[in-house]
Amino acid sequence: MTTTTPTTAPTTAETVARTLANHPDGITVRDLATEAGIGASTAAKALATMETTGTATRTPGPANGNRKSADIWHPVADDAAAPADEAPVADDAAAPADEAPAPAAPRQPDLKVLIMAGVLGDHPDGVSAAVAIAESGLAPATGDTILAAMEVAGAARRLPVGDDGEELWVRGDGDLATVDPANAPTHVTCPTCGHTRRVRRPSATGRRTGGTGRATGDINSDGSPKLGKNGLRNLVEAFMRDLGPGHDVTPGTAGRELGGRSSGACLNAMNALTGLGVLVMTNPAPVHFALVDNPPAPSPEVAALMTRPAAAPASDGDGDGDTSDAPASDGDTTVTPAADEALAA
Q1: Residue 298, pLDDT score
Q2: Is pLDDT at 322 greater than 80 in this prediction?
Q3: pLDDT, tens only, 207-242
Q4: Based on the domain organization, do 252 and 301 belong to the same domain?
Q5: Residue 205 pLDDT
Q6: CB atoms near residue 117 (< 10 Å)
Q7: Cis peptide bond prior to 286, omega within 30° of 0
Q8: What pLDDT is attached to residue 76?
Q9: Are residues 249 and 278 in the same domain?
Q10: Structural domain ending residue among the three candidates 119, 140, 172
């Protein structure tokens, strides 16, 4: 009796390699994923691994105006590298002491950077940070850090915010090998007042204990943590109070600073805060909001989310709580780095 050996299904890496080999002239991640019948994120990860091992190469897509087309991936011919058994044999004689050392191999891009670059390349017209992070398959905090590091190196950039307040990202011309996630900015300085505040990452959104600004433990479709009742409104209010009066902010900017929150949801929160006398609309199209000059005292839930201490109500000294004769605060409270670290913890 003849025994039939069962065939083993090809791995994802083998499927990607075979599909890529069928396109010596190059193919985009999205087209390869469609042909191979796998997800774009899976294909991007496999191609990034192949590039690291030298079995695939990537050519940046041509520029189209101020946008960049998707990168093109090519297979590396089998004869591009010499077989192991044909490697030159080292001479028994020791090399001269003054012989120049062999040049170091070029630095390879970080795998997560390659994945994010592939996602951005698939969206030449731009993609929101939340969608890009979701398609990359990276954790929200990691994806946000990678985007920030790519922006520093010029490998990613933001398009001007449109009338809908949505901020989109596209691929930049920077070398991916120069992107270092450790260089992602952790603080940003306001050009208006010079105040330095901590960049809010998705992992930190709603992480504080107490109040309705904390996360519920559930996850939204874009990977961000769901918040409790009035949670986003409290985060938006705390963010605007941190900035202080005189800062015009779009809902898209607020959403990005709060870890990739929906600009529409932030718009609803800012409209609600306007009705409560905390914010004022400074421009209807594109819509901008700012903190009022003398906002009411923040709730304990909002104060717990602020990175700048809430100004204590002034006292006229007679204990009746009437502060009409007290000088008004300009809202520009200076926070020492040590206090800022403690408040942000």
Answers
A1: 92
A2: no
A3: 333 333 444 455 555 555 567 788 889 999 989 998
A4: yes
A5: 41
A6: 28
A7: yes
A8: 86
A9: yes
A10: 172
Domain of 32 in residue numbering reads as 12-78+109-172
Report the pLDDT value the prediction gives residue 66, as an integer from 0 to 100. Answer: 58
- Local confidence band at 184 (pLDDT 50, 70, 90 cut-offs): confident
Pinpoint the alpha helices (H) of the chain: 12-21, 29-36, 40-53, 111-121, 129-136, 140-152, 231-243, 251-257, 263-275, 300-305, 337-344
Whether residue 301 sits in one domain with residue 209: yes
CATH, residue 29: 1.10.10.10
Measured between its terminal Cα atoms, the distance across the chain in Å is 71
Give the whole-angstrom CA distance, residue 311 versus residue 333: 8
Q: How far is 147 from 127, CA to CA, in rounded Å?
A: 12
In a domain, 182, yes or no: no
Per the CB < 8 A criterion, the answer to whether 290 and 317 are in contact is: no
Are 135 and 209 part of one and the same domain? no
**Higher pLDDT pick, 292 / 162:** 292
Ramachandran class of 8: left when φ > 0, alpha when ψ lies in -120 to 50, beta otherwise:
beta
Say whether both 117 and 214 belong to one domain: no
**Closest by Cα among 145, 149, 142, 171 to 158:** 171
Identity of the amino acid at 5: T
Is 90 exceeded by the pLDDT of residue 277? yes
Check pLDDT > 60 for residue 310. Answer: no
How many domains is the chain partitioned into structurally?
2
Rounded to whole angstroms, how far apart are CA atoms 189 and 340? Answer: 13
The rounded Cα 262 to chain-centroid distance in angstroms is 14
